Amino acid sequence: MIEPLLEAVDVAKDLGSGAARVAALKGVTLTLNGGELTLLMGPSGSGKTTLLSILGCMLTPTDGTVRICGRSTAGLGPEEMAQLRRLHVGFVFQSFHLFPTLSATDNVRLALDVRGDPARAARAKSKEALARVGLADKAKALPRVLSGGEQQRVAIARAIVGSPSVILADEPTAALDGENGRAIMKILAEIASEPARAVLIVTHDPRLLPFADRIVHIEDGRITGEERGGASSP
Amino acid sequence: MEGNQVGNMPLVFTLALRNLFHDRLRFIATVIGIVFSIVLVMVQMGLYLGFGRMVTTMIDHASADLWIMPKGTKCFEDPSLLNMRERYRVLATSGVAEAIPLVIGFADWRMASGEMTPVFIIGSDLRSGGLEPWNVVEGRIESLAGAKNVAVDQSYFDRLGVSGIGSAAEIRQQPVRVAAVTSGIRSFTTTPFVFVDLNRARSYTGVPSAKASYLLVRLSANTDRDRERRELLSNIPDVEVLTPSEFRERSRRFWLFGTGAGAALFAGALLGVIVGTVIVAQTLYASTKEHLNEFATLRAIGSSKRYIHKVIVCQALLSAVIGFSIAALIGDVIVRLTETTALPILITPALLAGLFLLTIVMCVGSSIAAIVQVTRIDPAMAFTR
Questions:
Q1: Which of A122, A168, B180, B215 could form an S-S bond across to B151 if both were Cys, CB 3.0 to 4.6 Å?
Q2: pTM value?
Q3: What is the H or E stretch that residue A35 is in?
Q4: pLDDT over 60 at B4, yes or no
Q5: How much is the pLDDT for B125?
Q6: Contact check, Cβ <8 Å, B302/A78
Q7: Does A86 touch chain B (CB under 8 A)?
Q8: A95 Cβ under 8 Å from any chain B Cβ
Q9: Residue A196's closest CA among A163, A153, A162?
Q10: A6-232 topology per CATH
């Protein structure tokens, strides 16, 4: 049996304290396997972002366990969690979060620089990653001269440049028009087709359904259903 | 538009540089803050060093292995007097080659126009050359042996109402004539120095012939100075025997700390450091706050806290280097402008090195508030902003 790249078992998370304490997640179990693009869908306030933060090793669960590439996050401190993130997780954010003063190459290179990779090799890898998302000719461009779709592609290049096992994307197409959104999804689906890589996308957008191998529904902090997506149809 | 390529520069440095220059107005404010602060400290400390050198200028130019003075003498200008009979005891001490009396004191200088101004008389035996004028630009030192002859500095011509060699005036109602002119012998008290022969110094200052202000001791070759000093102290009661460096230090301590002048200079310097630290801390904090999203993104993609701290410290260091460079240029101009004044600002290489270190410490110290702020950053912010 193939071990999942990411596994969350009975994860619960309480947010706030005292009277304001809220159970954001109530016993969530989810696995992400290599070669799969999973969509996590649910209404606002259903716990999607909290789950994404826990799966991305940014938050620790109140209860339950999370294992990433076989390593449990239980008992890890902030710096150990940061190490897990930089080695195993790539992030794509809704509003891109590119550094406005850095070129596309340097934005991508950041993901390697925080790992301490040598500058020359990191620059070469960053250019390769940009070429992979179709931006070889925009390597020196600053984010402000790129379109929204191009900025998101730079963000994807940054997420994949370190060859993480898991890519977590938060509404990656929400800020884009239909055409750019489809282009981004094609890239993410292609990345997810690699057997050693799992992609989880949090979205509200039903137009993404054809790209998914699995669709997981979450509501009120619980997984309410799971189905195979359009991409897994024969 | 393309981003500037910075070669293979470490990304931490690039990020710090770009963050710094992103808001140019704030960057200029930061640099002005650092420059203002460092120039203030530089001027205060330069004044301190300049003052320290000025108060010992006579000791520096005297030719003595040891200074003998009345007990409790605080500085070169101290009016206490020695008995001249001590001179014979000094000369009787083995190892002493010469004991040259020196007479100093204030007197009134009456110009040809009838106006009066105070002067500081320095009189020594011109044949032995204990403390004679230096930097003589007109006339000869030897001419001071002649009756009425005095040496004055050209910077005090206006104060003394003279125009050069041959000008006449009166000291204590006795006629004097300028016979030698020096350059750059200035007093920090602004009272002009007047060099004369020993005997006339007595008559101008009212010091009786049985008294002297100091005895400048020259030792024979191969004499152990410390041993000689011990012997002099055991032979002669009620005097102090100091080496030139000890006397220098004592004079400096008196004028700088006994009068409060040094404390005032240090207080000014401290104020400069505080102002600089506050300005740099405020601008770094504001800059960090503005880039909080970026720091949260860095944290989200797995950067360590140390990496982010490095970006902030790098910003502080860049500000320090730029600010210090400008301050050093301004300091150079100030030194040139004050070098011929009564109190020149003295900036030594050691002071410059110390100020550079201070700038670095001040700027890096200022980044603490910003570092504390990013330490609290939640990487999950990247999902919610």
A1: B180
A2: 0.76
A3: none
A4: no
A5: 84
A6: no
A7: yes
A8: yes
A9: A163
A10: Rossmann fold (3.40.50)
Whether B22 sits inside 8 A of A100 (CB atoms) is yes
Q: How far apart are CA B280 and CA B32, in angstroms?
A: 10
Confidence of residue A232 (pLDDT cuts 50, 70, 90): low
Chain A: residue nearest B383 by CA?
A93
Q: Give the Cα separation of B111 and B118 in Å (integer).
A: 11
Tokens of A187: 């890239």
Stretch B110-116: mean pLDDT: 91
> What confidence tens digit (pLDDT) does each residue in A18-42 have?
888 889 999 999 999 999 999 999 9
pLDDT, one tens digit per residue, over B195-207 is 999 989 999 999 9
Please tell me if residue A142 touches chain B, with a CB cutoff of 8 Å: yes
The answer, for B312 touching chain A at a CB cutoff of 8 Å, is: no
Contact residues, chain B, for A109 at CB < 8 Å: 11
Q: What is the C-alpha separation between A22 and A25, in angstroms, rounded?
A: 9
User: A6, exposed or middle or buried, with CB in 10 Å at 0-12, 13-18, 19+?
Assistant: buried
Which of B294, B383, B384 to mutate to probe the A interface, most A CBs <10 Å? B383
Cα B35 from Cα B315, distance rounded (Å): 16
Q: Where are the domains of chain A?
A: 6-232
Question: In this complex, do A123 and B8 lie within 8 Å of one another by their Cβ atoms?
Answer: yes
The per-residue pLDDT for range B229-253, each reduced to its tens digit, is 999 988 888 899 999 999 999 998 8
Angle, CA B34 vertex, CA B30 and CA B40 arms, to 5°: 145
**b/e per residue B355-379 (b: at least 16 CB within 10 A):** bbebbeebbbebbbebbebbeebeb
CA distance, residue B380 to nearest chain A CA (Å): 6
Closest CB to B383: pick one of A53, A85, A114.
A53
Residue B8, judged by CB atoms within 10 A of its CB (0-12, 13-18, 19+), counts as: exposed
Average pLDDT, chain B: 88
Q: Check residue B139 and give left, alpha or beta (phi > 0: left; psi -120 to 50: alpha).
A: left
Please name the member of A56, A84, A140 whose beta carbon is closest to the beta carbon of B5: A140
Is the Cβ of A170 closer than 8 Å to some Cβ of chain B?
yes
- B382/A114 touch (CB, cutoff 8 Å), yes or no: no
User: How much is the ipTM here?
Assistant: 0.90
Q: What is the pLDDT of residue B289?
A: 80
Which strands sit side by side in the sheet containing A22-32, from one edge to the other? Answer: A22-32, A6-15, A63-68, A71-72
Whether the CB-CB separation of A175 and A143 falls below 8 Å is answered with no
Query: How far, in Å, CA of A112 to CA of B11, rounded?
Result: 10
Pairwise CA distance, residues A152 & A186, whole Å: 13
Q: Judge whether B213 and B240 are in contact, CB under 8 Å.
A: no
